[in-house]
Design goal:
The chain is of the alpha+beta class. Helices cover about 15% and strands about 35% of the residues. It is globular. A hairpin with a 4-residue loop joins strand 12 and strand 13. The strands form four sheets. Strands 4-7-10-9-11 form a five-stranded mixed β-sheet, covered by helices on one side. A five-stranded mixed β-sheet has the order 6-8-12-13-14.
Protein backbone atom coordinates (compact mmCIF):
# COMPACT_ATOMS: atom_id res chain seq x y z
CA UNK A 1 0.00 0.00 0.00
CA UNK A 2 1.38 3.39 -1.04
CA UNK A 3 1.74 6.19 1.51
CA UNK A 4 1.76 9.99 1.42
CA UNK A 5 4.09 11.55 3.99
CA UNK A 6 3.90 8.46 6.17
CA UNK A 7 0.12 8.01 5.94
CA UNK A 8 -1.97 5.82 3.69
CA UNK A 9 -3.47 7.77 0.82
CA UNK A 10 -6.91 7.38 2.40
CA UNK A 11 -5.66 8.81 5.70
CA UNK A 12 -3.77 11.62 3.96
CA UNK A 13 -6.86 12.66 1.98
CA UNK A 14 -9.03 12.52 5.09
CA UNK A 15 -6.46 14.65 6.94
CA UNK A 16 -6.63 17.05 4.01
CA UNK A 17 -10.24 17.76 4.92
CA UNK A 18 -9.20 19.34 8.20
CA UNK A 19 -5.71 20.63 7.53
CA UNK A 20 -5.62 21.05 3.77
CA UNK A 21 -3.19 19.35 1.40
CA UNK A 22 -0.23 21.56 2.19
CA UNK A 23 1.84 19.86 -0.51
CA UNK A 24 -0.69 20.25 -3.33
CA UNK A 25 -0.20 23.03 -5.88
CA UNK A 26 -0.78 23.25 -9.63
CA UNK A 27 2.43 22.78 -11.59
CA UNK A 28 3.53 24.81 -14.60
CA UNK A 29 6.02 23.95 -17.31
CA UNK A 30 9.26 25.86 -17.72
CA UNK A 31 10.40 24.27 -20.96
CA UNK A 32 8.99 23.61 -24.39
CA UNK A 33 7.10 20.33 -24.70
CA UNK A 34 7.95 17.67 -27.29
CA UNK A 35 5.84 17.53 -30.45
CA UNK A 36 4.90 13.86 -29.98
CA UNK A 37 1.45 13.00 -28.60
CA UNK A 38 3.14 11.16 -25.73
CA UNK A 39 4.93 13.61 -23.46
CA UNK A 40 7.31 12.21 -20.83
CA UNK A 41 6.97 14.61 -17.91
CA UNK A 42 10.03 13.08 -16.25
CA UNK A 43 12.05 14.84 -18.97
CA UNK A 44 10.29 18.21 -18.70
CA UNK A 45 11.00 20.80 -16.00
CA UNK A 46 7.87 21.63 -14.01
CA UNK A 47 7.59 23.81 -10.95
CA UNK A 48 4.76 24.41 -8.47
CA UNK A 49 2.96 27.75 -8.83
CA UNK A 50 3.65 28.38 -5.14
CA UNK A 51 6.42 27.14 -2.87
CA UNK A 52 5.64 23.81 -1.19
CA UNK A 53 7.94 22.48 1.52
CA UNK A 54 5.99 19.31 2.22
CA UNK A 55 5.86 17.78 -1.26
CA UNK A 56 6.14 14.00 -0.74
CA UNK A 57 9.29 12.48 -2.13
CA UNK A 58 7.30 9.63 -3.66
CA UNK A 59 4.83 11.92 -5.49
CA UNK A 60 5.01 12.63 -9.20
CA UNK A 61 2.87 15.46 -10.53
CA UNK A 62 1.23 14.84 -13.86
CA UNK A 63 -0.13 18.04 -15.44
CA UNK A 64 -2.78 18.33 -18.13
CA UNK A 65 -1.52 19.45 -21.52
CA UNK A 66 -4.03 19.99 -24.36
CA UNK A 67 -3.82 17.41 -27.17
CA UNK A 68 -1.20 15.39 -25.27
CA UNK A 69 -0.84 12.21 -23.27
CA UNK A 70 1.43 13.28 -20.45
CA UNK A 71 3.02 10.46 -18.49
CA UNK A 72 5.45 9.64 -15.71
CA UNK A 73 7.17 6.38 -14.81
CA UNK A 74 6.56 5.04 -11.31
CA UNK A 75 8.80 2.91 -9.16
CA UNK A 76 7.42 0.79 -6.35
CA UNK A 77 5.96 2.93 -3.56
CA UNK A 78 5.42 5.99 -5.77
CA UNK A 79 2.19 7.59 -6.93
CA UNK A 80 1.13 10.00 -9.67
CA UNK A 81 -1.33 12.80 -8.98
CA UNK A 82 -3.00 14.66 -11.80
CA UNK A 83 -5.58 17.35 -12.39
CA UNK A 84 -7.60 19.25 -13.05
CA UNK A 85 -10.20 16.81 -14.38
CA UNK A 86 -13.51 17.49 -16.06
CA UNK A 87 -13.63 14.85 -18.78
CA UNK A 88 -10.06 13.70 -19.39
CA UNK A 89 -8.97 10.16 -18.57
CA UNK A 90 -6.22 8.90 -16.31
CA UNK A 91 -4.51 5.68 -17.27
CA UNK A 92 -1.62 3.34 -16.63
CA UNK A 93 0.19 0.69 -18.64
CA UNK A 94 3.31 -1.44 -18.59
CA UNK A 95 5.98 -1.23 -21.28
CA UNK A 96 9.34 -2.99 -21.24
CA UNK A 97 8.97 -3.70 -17.54
CA UNK A 98 8.20 -0.08 -16.67
CA UNK A 99 4.93 1.23 -15.22
CA UNK A 100 3.69 4.46 -16.80
CA UNK A 101 0.81 6.62 -15.54
CA UNK A 102 -0.88 9.02 -17.97
CA UNK A 103 -3.19 12.00 -18.19
CA UNK A 104 -5.06 11.45 -21.45
CA UNK A 105 -6.41 14.69 -22.91
CA UNK A 106 -9.89 14.59 -24.39
CA UNK A 107 -10.94 18.27 -24.39
CA UNK A 108 -10.15 21.36 -26.45
CA UNK A 109 -10.75 19.54 -29.73
CA UNK A 110 -8.57 16.54 -28.90
CA UNK A 111 -11.47 14.22 -29.71
CA UNK A 112 -10.47 10.56 -29.74
CA UNK A 113 -6.90 11.19 -30.92
CA UNK A 114 -5.27 10.74 -27.51
CA UNK A 115 -7.65 7.97 -26.43
CA UNK A 116 -6.86 5.99 -29.58
CA UNK A 117 -3.13 6.62 -29.20
CA UNK A 118 -3.28 5.32 -25.63
CA UNK A 119 -5.22 2.23 -26.73
CA UNK A 120 -2.68 1.50 -29.47
CA UNK A 121 0.29 2.06 -27.18
CA UNK A 122 -1.10 0.07 -24.27
CA UNK A 123 -2.56 -2.84 -26.18
CA UNK A 124 -2.09 -5.40 -23.40
CA UNK A 125 -1.94 -4.55 -19.70
CA UNK A 126 -3.60 -1.23 -19.06
CA UNK A 127 -5.96 0.65 -16.78
CA UNK A 128 -7.93 3.76 -17.54
CA UNK A 129 -10.61 5.53 -15.57
CA UNK A 130 -12.51 8.79 -15.35
CA UNK A 131 -11.60 10.67 -12.13
CA UNK A 132 -14.46 13.12 -12.66
CA UNK A 133 -16.94 10.26 -12.15
CA UNK A 134 -16.88 11.43 -8.53
CA UNK A 135 -19.23 14.15 -9.79
CA UNK A 136 -20.80 11.93 -12.48
CA UNK A 137 -23.97 9.84 -12.40
CA UNK A 138 -25.02 6.24 -12.00
CA UNK A 139 -26.76 4.14 -14.68
CA UNK A 140 -30.18 5.35 -13.55
CA UNK A 141 -29.14 8.95 -14.21
CA UNK A 142 -28.85 9.98 -10.56
CA UNK A 143 -25.82 12.21 -10.11
CA UNK A 144 -23.23 11.19 -7.56
CA UNK A 145 -22.89 14.91 -6.94
CA UNK A 146 -26.46 15.02 -5.62
CA UNK A 147 -25.96 11.86 -3.57
CA UNK A 148 -22.83 13.36 -2.07
CA UNK A 149 -24.84 16.39 -0.97
CA UNK A 150 -27.51 14.13 0.57
CA UNK A 151 -24.94 12.17 2.57
CA UNK A 152 -23.26 15.42 3.51
CA UNK A 153 -26.55 16.74 4.90
CA UNK A 154 -27.19 13.46 6.75
CA UNK A 155 -23.95 13.85 8.68
CA UNK A 156 -24.51 17.54 9.37
CA UNK A 157 -22.12 18.99 6.84
CA UNK A 158 -22.64 21.71 4.28
CA UNK A 159 -21.53 21.03 0.73
CA UNK A 160 -20.32 24.24 -0.92
CA UNK A 161 -18.97 24.99 -4.35
CA UNK A 162 -15.91 22.91 -5.23
CA UNK A 163 -12.97 24.03 -7.33
CA UNK A 164 -11.30 21.03 -8.94
CA UNK A 165 -11.19 17.26 -9.32
CA UNK A 166 -7.86 15.42 -9.03
CA UNK A 167 -6.93 11.81 -9.67
CA UNK A 168 -4.29 9.47 -8.21
CA UNK A 169 -2.87 6.21 -9.53
CA UNK A 170 -0.29 4.41 -7.43
CA UNK A 171 2.46 1.98 -8.37
CA UNK A 172 0.22 -0.72 -6.90
CA UNK A 173 -2.65 0.17 -9.24
CA UNK A 174 -4.75 1.93 -6.59
CA UNK A 175 -7.18 4.48 -8.07
CA UNK A 176 -8.46 7.57 -6.27
CA UNK A 177 -10.24 10.78 -7.13
CA UNK A 178 -11.00 13.69 -4.87
CA UNK A 179 -12.66 17.11 -4.90
CA UNK A 180 -10.80 20.17 -3.68
CA UNK A 181 -11.77 23.68 -2.64
CA UNK A 182 -9.19 26.38 -2.02
CA UNK A 183 -9.31 28.23 1.27
CA UNK A 184 -6.55 30.76 1.72
CA UNK A 185 -3.26 29.28 0.56
CA UNK A 186 -4.17 25.61 0.75
CA UNK A 187 -6.41 23.20 -1.10
CA UNK A 188 -8.83 21.33 1.16
CA UNK A 189 -10.37 17.95 0.34
CA UNK A 190 -14.16 18.08 0.25
CA UNK A 191 -14.68 14.42 -0.68
CA UNK A 192 -12.61 11.47 -1.87
CA UNK A 193 -13.25 7.99 -3.19
CA UNK A 194 -11.20 4.94 -4.08
CA UNK A 195 -12.32 3.19 -7.22
CA UNK A 196 -12.27 -0.56 -7.71
CA UNK A 197 -12.09 -2.09 -11.18
CA UNK A 198 -14.20 -5.19 -11.60
CA UNK A 199 -12.48 -8.38 -12.70
CA UNK A 200 -14.42 -8.49 -15.95
CA UNK A 201 -13.44 -4.93 -16.81
CA UNK A 202 -9.95 -5.00 -15.35
CA UNK A 203 -8.40 -3.35 -18.39
CA UNK A 204 -11.41 -1.29 -19.41
CA UNK A 205 -12.62 2.11 -18.36
CA UNK A 206 -15.49 1.73 -15.93
CA UNK A 207 -18.66 2.78 -17.69
CA UNK A 208 -21.49 4.50 -15.86
CA UNK A 209 -23.28 1.21 -15.29
CA UNK A 210 -20.22 -0.49 -13.81
CA UNK A 211 -19.91 1.84 -10.83
CA UNK A 212 -22.27 1.51 -7.91
CA UNK A 213 -22.35 4.35 -5.43
CA UNK A 214 -22.58 1.86 -2.57
CA UNK A 215 -19.22 0.43 -3.64
CA UNK A 216 -17.36 3.68 -3.08
CA UNK A 217 -15.11 3.84 -0.05
CA UNK A 218 -15.34 6.58 2.63
CA UNK A 219 -16.38 10.03 1.54
CA UNK A 220 -16.20 12.46 4.42
CA UNK A 221 -16.79 16.18 4.24
CA UNK A 222 -15.32 19.27 5.74
CA UNK A 223 -17.76 21.44 7.72
Amino acid sequence: MVNINGKTIADALTDGMNNGLQWLAPFISKDNLPSDVFCNIDLVAFEPTVNRKNIPGNAKFLPYVPHKITYVTLNRGEFAISGKFSGCLMGAYCENGKYHVCHIATGNGAGDTCKNAFTDKAADEKIKFLPSMIIGEDKSGVKYYDKIKEICKKYGYTFNQFDDVYGIITSEGELYSFITAKNGEYYYVMAWVEWKLGKKDQVQILDRGAIKFEDLLPFIFQK
